[in-house]
Design a protein that fits this description.
Blueprint: H1 12-35, H2 40-47, H3 50-70, H4 73-88
Helix pairs in contact: 1-2, 1-3
Pfam family, one: YiaAB
Keywords: Membrane, Transmembrane, Transmembrane helix
GO biological process, one term: DNA damage response
């Protein structure tokens, strides 16, 4: 009998995608705003693109936090308890009064 993991986890691909998204957006926006030959108002408008960098940073922080939580002892103990309960549970068992 195989058990399925109940707690959702992030895949390695999602973690890499969020890290790359943060890095590319931060470097691209900083370079673009710094070297574009335009006036101050245009630079300020383009700096609004840094909002994307901020959302990418939150996504990356969430991934790092979730990965760290997966390795904590309490998380592993809770997962083991849940796996044990699910393994012992019989959904077709009927209790007769």
């Amino acid at each position: 009998m195989s058990t399925t993991q109940v707690r959702p986890t992030n895949t390695q691909a999602f973690f890499v995608q969020s890290a790359l998204s943060f890095g590319v957006s931060a470097i691209g926006m900083a370079t673009g705003v710094a070297f574009l030959p335009v006036g101050a108002w245009t630079r300020a408008f383009l700096a609004l693109g840094l909002l994307y960098v901020i959302t990418s940073a939150f996504t990356l922080a969430k991934c790092v936090r979730d990965r760290q939580e997966e390795t904590t002892v309490s998380g592993r103990v809770d997962q083991a308890r849940l796996d044990k309960l699910l393994a012992e549970h019989d959904p077709f068992k009927v209790d007769n009064p």
